[in-house]
């Protein structure tokens, strides 16, 4: 897939996926896209973004933290077909922006972000 933000990522992957909230608006900081591209290049497999930008209404609907990095366009929840989420989280640790930022391990996905007040690590 050819992206309009990087070689493999496009704007549409990061838009809010809520219904009846913000008409699929979205923002993403370039540092997040660059870090995701670096991770994709490292693992050699496509990364699926399950959640990128979230408007405040959608963030509340999904039970997101009131100060979620998703609302700032600095976070993505990701998964990779055929790659265990624990292994994906370990690989994310090798990316400088994620090492300084946030990495959260969940059952079916990994949260990564490029927060400035990190590092932050958790399991959900």
What does this structure look like?
This protein has 124 residues and is an alpha+beta fold. It has 4 helices and 5 strands, in the order H-E-H-E-H-H-E-E-E. The chain has helices spanning 30-43, 56-61, 85-92, 96-100, and strands at residues 48-51, 75-79, 102-105, 110-113, 120-123. Strands 1-2-4-3-5 form a 5-stranded mixed sheet.
**Residues in β-strands, percent:** 15-25%
Secondary-structure element string: HEHEHHEEE
Count of alpha/pi helices: 4
Class computed from helices, strands and strand pairing = alpha+beta
Let me know the number of strands: 5
- Mind summarizing the main beta sheet? 5 strands, mixed
Which strand order do you get reading across the main beta sheet? 1-2-4-3-5
What is the average per-residue confidence, as pLDDT, rounded to a whole number? 95
Radius of gyration: 13 Å
**Spans where pLDDT lies below 50 across 5 or more residues:** none
- How far the N terminus sits from the C terminus, by CA atoms, comes to 30 Å
- Overall geometry comes to globular
Helix content: 25-40%
